[in-house]
Amino acid sequence: MSSPLKLEPLFHIGPAAITSPVLVTWAIMIALGFFAYFATRRLSLEPSRAQAALEAVVGAIDTQIADTMQADPAPYRALIGTILIFVLIANWSSLIPGVEPPTAHVETDAALALIVLCATIAYGVRAQGIIGYLRTFAEPSWVMIPLNLVEQLTRTFSLIVRLFGNIMSGVFVIGIILSLAGFLVPIPLMALDLLTGAVQAYIFAILACVFIGAAIGERKASSKAPTMEHDTP
């Protein structure tokens, strides 16, 4: 098994080297795109079993977003839902013979964490304005600006390390046991890998909610203040 830190390109498109994680990522994106198209093209007020199951999944995602962020889930559903489903399928792709999950490579995890970072900044600016968002780095005092900036970077780095370490280690352990013990022994570990992949996808999505919720939190607090003052006798 090759090192997850060293990738050999499969082919090139112009100057861009296309590696195995990129190819698997494209395949997952295309598969999810087709699934989304065919699953939503015939929605009805009287849902079929498939539509009811899909609505249950969307409802569960909305509930988690609302509980974590204490906000209307609609503006964040597409981002958080897509991250959750993509990371879940990417983690579980290790069960396909000959396929290494793209999340077992640090480049994919870094790209996902960068998406979360950019979304956190974008939602924070949209909720509070550029000046208001920048002021959050000076809380509770301007002395905290360097520490708050470092925190923004370190929590993004923690997303990368957490997902990469857990998925990569699972792939290595199953690969080593498979090479030593044959095909039947690793089956319990593969079941554990399914659970680990689901848990890591959930944690990644929830942390994205936490980071975005923290970025928009000040506006929610300030928007509630006038109501509280009005209700006070």
Can you walk through the features of this model?
The protein has a two-stranded antiparallel ribbon with strand order 1-2. The longest helix is centred in the C-terminal third of the chain and has 45 residues, at 187-231. Helix 4 runs parallel beside helix 6 (187-231). The termini are far apart. It has helices at 20-40, 49-69, 74-92, 106-135, 145-181, 187-231; strands spanning 11-13, 16-18. Strand 1 and strand 2 form a beta hairpin. The protein is mainly α and 233 residues long. Helix content is 74%, strand content 3%.
**Beta-strand content estimate:** under 5%
What is the first-to-last residue Cα distance? 70 Å
Strand order of the largest sheet: 1-2
Oligomeric organization of the protein chains: single chain
Measured on Cα atoms, how large is the radius of gyration? 21 Å
Largest beta sheet, briefly? 2 strands, antiparallel
| Relative helix content | over 70%
Name the poorly predicted regions: 221-233
| Global structural class | mainly alpha
Order of secondary-structure elements: EEHHHHHH
Average predicted local confidence, pLDDT: 83
- Number of E-type strands: 2
The rough form would be described as globular
Summarize the structure.
With about 230 residues, this protein is mainly α.
